[in-house]
Specification:
- This protein has 18 helices and 14 strands.
- With 439 residues, it is an alpha/beta fold.
- The chain folds into 2 domains: 150 residues, Aspartate Aminotransferase, domain 1; 239 residues, Type I PLP-dependent aspartate aminotransferase-like (Major domain) (Aspartate Aminotransferase, domain 2), CATH 3.40.640.
- A 7-stranded mixed beta sheet has the order 4-10-9-8-7-5-6, with helices on both faces.
- A hairpin with a 2-residue loop joins strand 2 and strand 3.
- It is globular.
- The structure holds pyridoxal-5'-phosphate.
- Pyridoxal-5'-phosphate binds next to helix 6.
């Protein structure tokens, strides 16, 4: 390029850059993000609500008692005296900090190892490794498992932590249609071509239970594809662990394919009513993850309160099958009751109980307010863009701490709010909300 043109283009590029340069915070302040933009209408009530009192089937919201259907404490362990006793004793002995440092450096203890062994046994794997948080753990497991020559094939409706893990991947990735085995097969064909070209491998990722709609991942069908394709399967069983399978070992046990899950993940944040998570699989693979998962190598070890707490919780899950039985009594009563009353609860195959209604976002807000304030029912509400426009998803998570009386009151409340939705009550009530939102 002639020197004078180079000078010219240099000038142009420089001018362009200076024109498009902004303060980083300008965009952030102007656009608060897909959820953040609702903050002024929703915060403190629809998002970031404060549930007070002991964890359980009935808690306090806005100063009133509500039946809580959104706390993910599937087995009702959160407030059991024997659990709280162990938590408190661990805090009294170790404080909240011990052990200090990352596992690799100074944060390792025999009890971390014991918990790993017990978890591995429980989910029928050779070994397991602890993670401080499920979310970061999943991101890091995916990051550690694949290199740039490998290909990831994953369900399009995956949890954010899977999506973020895949984001770190430097190689090819394909999504398949939600729980659609034909689509998975088509994408495995594509992935196989790429992997063959690169000399890499394939990682398929599914959830054990999809937490929004409650369907189980089609693990049996996915595993069957191993006959035809060469891949490894990772399953995020956050909602399946403790709730599914004969012993509570999760969706793999339920579908009788636990041995074919190569990398099994579950969190302590749901059935275990704690914090932390684990990954389990063949010893060689877990050993590799132990030395390569950056979220664990470069982060402080899981504190002893959670380690001792998890040992106690796991023991209760193993020795008290009545907890899971009570959970399922409530799940069945709730889901059958809703179906009998003609509610659309989609295709759930787990404890997650979605109720789909038709309505706008302002109607959804008025409806939820009515449910909480006048019927004492607290559940999560999901609207567009998470689900299609015009649909309202009320999501209920039954637990072992609920009673059949809670279920009955909830069914009656749902019948009442459906009548009010259909007779236009919420449309009228929501007009002020709609105006405020500029709809
Ligand atoms: C499917 C799934 N994976 C991972 C996580 C993250 O687990 P944690 O809360 O331990 O970070 C969750 C929890 O919300 C989840 O639902």
């Amino acid at each position: 390029m002639p020197a004078e043109i180079q000078v010219l283009t240099k000038g142009l590029v420089a001018t362009k850059l200076s024109h498009s340069m902004k303060d980083l915070f300008d965009r952030i302040i102007a656009n608060k993000g897909p959820l953040g933009k609702w903050a002024s209408q929703a915060e403190g009530y629809f998002v970031f609500p404060e549930l007070e009192g002991p964890i359980g089937n009935r808690m306090k919201f806005n100063g009133k008692e509500v039946i809580t259907w959104s706390i993910n404490d599937y087995l009702g362990l959160g407030n059991l005296p024997e659990i709280k006793k162990v938590d408190a004793a661990a805090a009294a002995e170790h404080g909240a900090a011990y052990p200090m440092g990352a596992r690799m450096m100074s944060g390792h203890t025999k009890l971390h190892e014991q918990l790993q062994n017990e978890l591995a046994d429980f989910v029928s794997k050779e070994a397991s490794y602890l993670l401080n948080f499920g979310y970061q753990g999943v991101v890091s497991i995916i990051d550690a498992l694949v290199s740039k020559d490998d290909v990831i094939v994953y369900d399009v409706d995956s949890h954010a932590c899977i999506i973020d893990g895949v984001r770190l991947h430097l190689g090819k990735r394909f999504t398949y249609k939600h729980n659609d085995v034909a689509s998975l097969e088509k994408n495995l064909e594509r992935a196989t071509k790429v992997a063959e070209q690169n000399g890499g491998g394939i990682l398929v990722i599914s959830e054990g239970v999809f937490g929004m709609r409650g369907e189980q991942g089609k693990l049996k069908e996915i595993v069957a594809l191993k006959e035809k394709f060469n891949f490894r399967l990772m399953v995020d069983d956050a909602h399946g662990f403790g709730t599914l399978g004969k012993t509570g070992a999760g969706a793999g046990e339920e579908q009788d394919v636990q041995d074919d899950i190569d990398v099994y993940f579950a969190t302590f944040a749901k059935s275990m009513a704690g914090i932390g998570a684990f990954v389990a699989g063949d010893k060689e693979i877990i050993d590799y993850l132990k030395y390569n998962m950056r979220s664990q190598m470069f982060a402080k070890s899981l504190p002893m309160i959670y380690v001792k707490g998890a040992l106690k919780r796991l023991d209760m899950i193993r020795t008290m099958p009545e907890l899971k039985a009570k959970l399922w009594e409530n799940v069945n009563a709730l889901q059958n009751g809703l179906r009998q009353r003609g509610f659309d609860i989609g295709t759930t195959q787990s404890c997650v109980t979605p109720v789909y209604l038709k309505g706008s976002i302002p109607e959804a807000m008025a409806l939820v307010k009515d449910l909480r304030e006048n019927y004492g029912i607290f559940c999560s509400i999901v609207v567009y863009p998470v689900i299609p426009k015009g649909l309202i998803l009320l999501r209920l998570i039954p637990t072992a701490s609920h009673t059949l009386q809670d279920v009955q009151e909830t069914l009656d409340a749902f019948s009442a709010i459906r009548d009010r939705l259909e007779n236009g009550t919420y449309k009228r009530l929501s007009q002020a909300v709609a105006a405020a939102m500029g709809e």
